[in-house]
Amino acid sequence: MTRVLILVVSLFVTADSMAGEPVDIGSRRELFVDDALVERLVGKADFRLHQPTPREVVMVHDAPWEGNNTTYHCVFQDGDRYRMFYVTGHLAAKNDQLDTRIESFCYAESDDGIHWRKPELGLHEFQGSKANNIVISRAMAQGHQARIGAPAVFKDTNPQAAPDARYKMFLSAEHPLGMLPMKSPDGIHWTPMSQTPVITDGAFDAMNLAFWDSERGEYRAYWRYFTAGVTQDKQWEPAGVRAIRTATSKDFLHWENQANLDYPGSPEEQLYENGIHPYHRAPHLLIGLPVRYVDRANPEYTTPAVGNGRAGPDRIREWPASLRSLPDFEQRQARAALIERLGSALTEGLFMSSRDGVTFRRWNEAFLRPGIERPGTWNYGQQFICWQLVETQSAFDGAPRELSLYATEGSWLDQGKSLRRYTLRLDGFVSINAPMSGGELVTKPIQFRGKTLSLNFASSAAGGLRVELRDAQDQPLPGYALEDCDELFGDTVQRHVTWKSSTDLAAIAGQMVRIRFVLRDADLFSFQFTEAP
Fold first, then answer.
1. Which residue did the predictor score with more confidence, 2 or 384?
2. Distance from C-alpha of 497 to C-alpha of 484, rounded to nearest angstrom
3. 349 and 289 in a common domain
4. DSSP 475-500
């Protein structure tokens, strides 16, 4: 009886899925950063989150105006230049209190994304000299009734953007608290777009960012709020857990559709930053690189107001042994003597993705761990990931381009921070992986445009993968069955699938199909139907 019931349910589910409308993916590239197109996984196939590879330190923040706590970096490629903007600040112990001071907003540029220079812009004076790379000074921000906060510059690709507003960002308005829109014709010279903040519902004490979403034809903003935050006299009183809020706009001035981000299947955690932006190779997908905050001495604390007391020697002796064994113990003690969590909290990078900008698939495992223990690591403030990824040349001659991301490290109070580069293969965030014993992925019904199917994959020398195209009844299409497919093996970001040595799919383009991927000791990162072979 049980076997009959299972068979009936199975037939019902199969018939129901066949009756559903196919997902029209056209010729866009699809990544496996979520299960939106996955109907079933068979055998030992499963999702695998990949971690970036650490590379060189690309920038040391050692200029006098950069202070010892430079952070909140943003980067993008602009024509033949890579451009970077960052906030400089200084933290110090003063009369047994933490003295926090934002110094300036600065600019750097590069020809390759690896070797960076800080041009002398001659715009703002620091200690009697304008020989610096300051774009916005503290005095300039105050002149607009704002503070620098944590701006994120982006180049506006909206076709309707005015020439004097080709670059945009937000400063942090103070009265009322909120996001003050700024515009620039060149990314260097900035003026306000409004005399008052345009978004005021939030805490805004992290990077406040926005971008033009070309897929949806609107601007989208993301900023910090607290899950139980309340507003008193137009000032935000933080409570609850650090979280992220979003809104949309057609003109960058009038914002609507506010929503708090949702992470089905993930626990409530303290999230600094958000790092959300369209992935340039698949702009219908939004990816985020938030920072996870964990207090190892006070794991039960969830509100910012709790755990802000000082930690004396007796309290520090109560810390877990591993926390006391981490690098820079004297630095850690000094920070904890001011505010305990500054010595006991740790930060690391996460990865998440979304197809609507509100609901995100967030991976609970770390994307960018603190790494091997060494001076300047495993502290509060490490692995704040620079907003946006860029493509750079590989260090290997003849290899394809790769993704570069940048993250902070360094132990503030007596020295400045630095910025380290990390690399990842194109589309290399998450793969469908199977061991040598094998596994399969079958997609939901889709429709596509194009004549060829291209894969981004990696296998061992003995492993590989094959592809089968199946019809609406979940049966192999003649000529595109598994036994017709020439096995693929290697490690490449683009290889065309062939069936009996042919790549031609023109005859079935536009039909409802499922794709069956069969893998052995291999990773599949993305696929795309294209017109040209």
1. 384
2. 11
3. yes
4. -BPTT-SGGGBPPB-SEEEEEE--BT
Question: How many whole angstroms separate alpha carbon 174 and alpha carbon 222?
Answer: 18
pTM for the full predicted model:
0.93
The answer to whether 266 touches 244, Cβ cutoff 8 Å, is: no
Do 442 and 45 meet the contact criterion of CB atoms below 8 Å apart?
no
Question: What are the percentages of helix, strand and coil residues in the chain, rounded to 5?
Answer: 10, 45, 45
- Mark out the alpha helices in 70-217 (DSSP H runs): 138-143
> Could you tell me the CA-to-CA distances from 431 to 51, 148, 528 in Å, in that order?
11, 39, 15
Task: Say how far apart CA 109 and CA 107 lie, in whole Å.
Answer: 7
Strands (E) across 364-479 are located at 390-392, 402-409, 418-425, 430-434, 439-443, 446-448, 452-470
CB neighbours of residue 25 within 10 Å: 19
Distance CA 390, CA 91 (A): 30
The whole-number average pLDDT for the span 184-206 is 96
The residue among 354, 386, 418 that closes a domain is 386
> Does residue 217 or residue 91 have the better pLDDT?
217
Picking from 405, 393, 509, 500, the residue whose alpha carbon sits closest to that of residue 450 is 509
- Please say which residue of 351, 368, 386 terminates a domain: 386
Listed residue (348, 358, 516) closest to 445, CA to CA: 516
Tell me the HSE value of 86 on the side-chain side, using a 13 A CA sphere. Answer: 29
Question: How far apart are alpha carbons 130 and 261 in whole angstroms?
Answer: 42
DSSP letter for 164, please.
G
- In this prediction, residue 19 carries a pLDDT of 45
**SS3 per-residue string spanning 251-290:** CCCCEEEEEECECCCCCCCEEECCCCEEECCEEEEEEECC
CA distance 286 to 288: 7
The total domain count for the chain is: 2
Domain residue limits at 311: 261-386
Report if residue 200 sits inside a domain. no
Cβ–Cβ under 8 Å, residues 412 and 89: no
Q: Do 310 and 376 belong together in one domain?
A: yes
The separation between the first and the last C-alpha atoms of the chain, rounded to the nearest angstrom, is 52
Nearest C-alpha neighbor of 446 from the set 16, 101, 38, 9: 38
Of how many residues is the chain composed?
Answer: 533
Q: For the residues of 49-110, what is the DSSP string, one character each?
A: E--PEEEEEEEE--SGGGBT--EEEEEEEETTEEEEEEEEEEEEEETTEEEEEEEEEEEEEE
pLDDT digits (tens, 9 = 90+) for 41-93: 999 999 999 999 999 999 999 999 998 888 899 999 999 999 999 999 888 77
For residue 126, give the amino acid letter: F
